[in-house]
Design brief:
This protein is α+β, with helices and mostly antiparallel strands. It has five helices and five strands, in the order βααααββαββ. It has a single domain, classed as 4'-phosphopantetheinyl transferase domain (Ribosomal Protein L22, Chain A), CATH 3.90.470.20. The strands form two sheets. Strands 1-5-4 form a three-stranded antiparallel β-sheet. It starts with a strand and ends in a 5-residue tail after the last strand. This is 4'-phosphopantetheinyl transferase.
């Protein structure tokens, strides 16, 4: 396994809360979420408490910041080219990279993500592998 990059990030949730209070939570979500995540966001806003909504946005912000750090300068992804998939049905969290430029897809192999949160903080690490040789 050849590692292309490792990125980490930490987010203080009150910062995310302040960002969305200055604008609207939906405007912030439109800016940073992929179409898949935005669909999840719309479902969450119907039933989840404000703290859960802030955590949802904070996790995705954190993971995407860490992934940008891991991919740069090889690839400079936009927010919407990355989709975070949380722990589900025993499958560990993962990050989907769906670049607008097909050439960028060939530059990136497997993407590994780890996320942790405690109180007002979210931490994420992203490891990017080189694509498998053909």
């Amino acid at each position: 396994m050849t590692i292309l990059g490792l990125g980490v990030d930490i987010v203080h949730l009150p910062r995310i809360a302040a960002l969305i209070s200055r604008r609207s939570a939906d405007r912030f979500a439109c800016r940073v979420l992929s179409p898949t995540e935005y669909g999840q966001w719309k479902q969450i806003t119907r039933s989840a408490a404000p703290a859960e909504q802030i955590r949802f946005l904070g996790v995705r912000w954190c993971v995407k910041e860490a992934s940008y750090k891991a991919l740069y300068p090889l690839v400079k992804p936009t927010w919407k080219e990355l989709t975070y998939h949380p722990l589900s049905n025993g499958q560990k969290p993962w990050l989907q990279f769906h670049p607008n430029n097909a050439n960028n897809f060939e530059k990136v192999g497997q993407v590994h993500v780890s996320i942790s949160h405690d109180g007002d903080y979210i931490y994420s690490s992203v490891l990017i592998e080189a694509p498998a040789s053909t």
